[in-house]
Design goal:
31% of the residues lie in helices and 13% in strands. With 188 residues, it is α/β, with parallel strands linked by helices. The C terminus is likely disordered.
Length: 188
């Protein structure tokens, strides 16, 4: 059984992630954070988890996180994981970052896209970007830069067409996607 933690578990993404993790047969959620709701039971914030996850939110502490979980998911806004993740990696933990902090390998490109300097540029080329269904190297990576929801939906929809030779790769592929909630909230 792999012990996992969710840093930023109180937000929409963190809550959805918890819902999936508690049902996974090989994972056990052992650490959840929410700075604003530290001490509150997870089930009070997410009633659907009552009786399935008997933990309380805590404030993020890297030492506590490393002691509590082998694998940590970061469901924090862009700019936070790059500050917090290196200490966990140095402690031998594996991390899946759901923000954009490790998706771009080149620090200059990162600054161009995210309009800030990356504070842990040495980790950018070491992060593995992709989904396990298409990129087996994700399974063994120490740091996974999880693609965003539009990228995942697009990759998983188009991959079978490419594999079967049904997509014309001499031209750019176009995917039209719409969002119900999260994409609308992250528009800049």
């Amino acid at each position: 059984m792999i012990e996992v933690g969710v840093v930023g578990a109180r937000g929409y993404t963190g809550g959805e992630l918890l819902r999936y993790l508690v049902d996974h047969p090989h994972l056990r959620v052992t650490y959840v954070t929410s700075d604003s709701q530290a001490g509150e039971a997870v089930a009070a914030a997410f009633p659907t988890l009552a009786g399935r996850l008997d933990l309380a939110f805590s404030r993020y502490d890297p030492t506590e996180a490393a002691a509590a979980a082998q694998l940590l998911f970061f469901a924090r806004p862009d700019g936070e994981a790059m500050r917090l993740v290196p200490e966990l990696l140095a402690a031998g933990r594996k991390v899946v970052d759901l923000s954009g902090d490790f998706r771009v390998r080149d620090p200059d490109r990162y600054a161009q896209w995210y309009r800030r300097e990356h504070v842990a540029p040495e980790w950018l080329p070491r992060a593995v970007y992709g989904v396990p269904e298409l990129h087996p190297e994700v399974r063994e990576a120490r740091l996974v830069a999880n693609p965003g929801c539009y990228a995942v939906a697009s990759l998983l929809a188009v991959a079978p067409l490419v594999e079967q030779g049904l997509a014309d790769l001499s031209r750019p592929l176009c995917v039209a996607a719409t969002s119900g909630i999260s994409g609308a909230c992250s528009a800049r």
